[in-house]
């Protein structure tokens, strides 16, 4: 179901105008990685899923999105799983780590929110990468952020960076913070090159 929906969405995105994917060759050959992307609106979620086809992404999504039964079924069909952002606990980490161990790709938007401003990154992506012992593939999105903008000639562009493999020597929080800062710097560089 995922591939059918995502391929249909990809065709729609291409029909409306330019849909450019830069450096797709940076994706690891074997699945089981985190793809972390900048987040400006719901369109970037669709575009990212379409950009890495035939690979699939299992997206973390705030649990509030699953309240509507019909929309919940749609989210499940596109491999989204709920996360409690207000009370993140072990379950917020357990599900993505299990997916990664099963060779699935996990999509995370480390800013944790849709914003046109630069938001500080949350530590979740780096924490999950550490616990799952997997690389983070950084990506940046440029293009429409909402339904209205989707019907303009604004180009959709996704740039994929080199996989990041962080070194961890201890269990302290400083390493997580330092690596989150590094990820943030990579995002800034990708966004600069995409615009």
From TrEMBL:
Q: What class of enzyme is it?
A: transferase
Which reaction is recorded as catalysed by this protein?
A: a 1-acyl-sn-glycero-3-phosphate + an acyl-CoA = a 1,2-diacyl-sn-glycero-3-phosphate + CoA
What are this entry's molecular-function GO terms? 1-acylglycerol-3-phosphate O-acyltransferase activity
GO cellular component annotations of the record:
membrane
GO biological process, alphabetically ordered: phosphatidic acid biosynthetic process
Q: The organism sits in which domain of life?
A: Bacteria
Domain named Phospholipid/glycerol acyltransferase: which ranges?
Answer: 33-144
Which keywords describe this protein according to UniProt? Answer: Acyltransferase, Lipid biosynthesis, Lipid metabolism, Phospholipid biosynthesis, Phospholipid metabolism, Transferase
State the EC number(s).
Answer: 2.3.1.51
Question: In which family does this protein belong, per the annotation?
Answer: Belongs to the 1-acyl-sn-glycerol-3-phosphate acyltransferase family.
| Comment on protein domains | The HXXXXD motif is essential for acyltransferase activity and may constitute the binding site for the phosphate moiety of the glycerol-3-phosphate.
Q: What is the protein name for this chain?
A: 1-acyl-sn-glycerol-3-phosphate acyltransferase
């Amino acid at each position: 179901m995922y591939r059918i929906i995502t391929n249909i969405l990809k065709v729609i995105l291409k029909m409306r105008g330019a849909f450019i994917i830069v450096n797709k060759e940076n994706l690891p050959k074997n699945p089981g990685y985190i793809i972390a992307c900048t987040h400006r609106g719901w369109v970037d979620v669709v575009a990212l899923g379409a950009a890495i086809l035939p690979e699939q992404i299992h997206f973390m999504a705030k649990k509030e999105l699953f309240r509507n039964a019909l929309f919940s079924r749609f989210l499940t069909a596109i491999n989204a799983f709920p996360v409690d952002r207000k009370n993140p606990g072990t379950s917020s980490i357990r599900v993505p780590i299990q997916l990664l161990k099963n060779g699935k790709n996990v999509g995370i938007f480390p800013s944790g929110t849709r914003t046109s401003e630069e938001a500080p990154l949350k530590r979740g992506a780096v924490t999950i990468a550490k616990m799952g012992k997997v690389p983070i593939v950084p990506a940046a999105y440029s293009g429409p952020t909402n339904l209205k903008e989707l019907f303009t000639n604004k180009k959709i562009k996704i740039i994929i960076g080199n996989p990041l493999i962080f070194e961890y020597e201890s269990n302290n929080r400083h390493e997580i913070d330092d690596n989150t800062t590094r990820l943030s710097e990579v995002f800034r560089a990708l966004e600069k090159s995409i615009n």
